């Protein structure tokens, strides 16, 4: 059986993380836990993410959770999240327990909010697992920053998080124009620098969302994790070359200065982004 491995995927949000978790979870020997996103470290350590903190469950749910733990049964996900948020020292033992089960060697946490974790928190996670002979590997997927921001805005609109009298263009400029309010997610260059401060490059799989679902990238991801490749899981290859954005004319140019450093940082590390990211030509 392969060496025990914990995959930490800090996003990026709107960049294929749901697919990544599903793909890894379907691999032989994997148990990714009961939640799509654990939301433990971001809620507990990043003030801007404190809204992810779970309220205390009712007494009967807590009692049920205690029984599930006692008898090794699968817990309710939201109660588990609350339990881990209450004391982050429980986090590593929980996942180590999954890896102690017969035939299980792979687990992980795919939470886009972890892009905001500090170097200290990332190091604490790595050291905690290393003390149990569990290797932490990073998977981080990056989408064209402006396209990702537009996708995020559309999600806000679907979830009624934007004022009805505010057009998409106005809302986008409010968040992302130079001097705008931004979001609680840090820029790519910030997250990448923090990851580099803790994890050597051979324990980082950093790739582009725009070719995540291609057979070549799926095979590379599988080799990195140590699981059998299933290229068919990606469906048709994604071809994002060229500027086929749904953004209103001129909007990308107005917000580009807010994202310029991310384009510069990622193109230096992944030059293929120049062809795959619709707005990279503005650099």
Automatic annotation (TrEMBL):
InterPro entries, per the entry? P-loop_NTPase
Q: What's a single GO MF annotation on this record?
A: transferase activity
Query: Which keywords label this protein?
Result: Transferase
Q: What Gene3D superfamilies does the entry give? A: P-loop containing nucleotide triphosphate hydrolases (3.40.50.300)
Q: What is this protein called?
A: Sulfotransferase family protein
Organism whose genome encodes this protein: Salipiger profundus
């Amino acid at each position: 059986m392969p060496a025990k491995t914990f995959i930490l995927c800090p996003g990026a949000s709107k960049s294929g993380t749901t697919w990544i978790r599903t793909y890894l979870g379907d691999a032989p020997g994997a148990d990714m836990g009961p939640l799509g996103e654990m939301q433990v470290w971001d809620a507990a350590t990043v003030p801007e993410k404190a809204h992810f903190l779970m309220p205390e469950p009712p007494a009967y749910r807590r009692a049920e959770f205690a029984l599930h733990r006692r008898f090794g049964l699968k817990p309710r996900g939201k109660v588990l999240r609350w339990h881990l948020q209450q004391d982050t020292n429980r986090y590593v033992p929980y996942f180590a327990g999954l890896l102690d089960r017969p035939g299980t060697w792979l687990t992980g946490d795919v939470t886009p909010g972890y892009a905001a974790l500090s170097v200290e928190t990332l190091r604490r996670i790595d050291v905690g697992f290393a003390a149990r002979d569990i290797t932490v590997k990073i998977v981080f997927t990056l989408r064209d920053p402006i396209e990702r921001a537009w996708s995020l805005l559309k999600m806000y609109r679907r979830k009624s998080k934007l004022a009805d009298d505010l057009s998409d263009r106005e809302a986008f400029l409010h968040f992302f124009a130079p001097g705008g309010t931004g979001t609680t997610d840090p820029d790519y260059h910030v997250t990448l620098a923090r990851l580099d401060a803790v994890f050597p490059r051979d324990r980082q799989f950093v790739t582009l969302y725009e070719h995540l679902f291609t057979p070549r990238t799926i095979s590379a991801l599988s080799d990195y994790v140590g699981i059998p490749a299933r290229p068919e899981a990606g469906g048709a290859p994604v071809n994002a070359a060229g500027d086929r954005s749904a953004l209103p004319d001129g909007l990308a140019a107005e917000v580009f200065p807010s994202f310029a450093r991310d384009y510069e940082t990622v193109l230096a590390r992944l030059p293929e982004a120049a062809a795959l990211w619709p707005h990279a030509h503005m650099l």
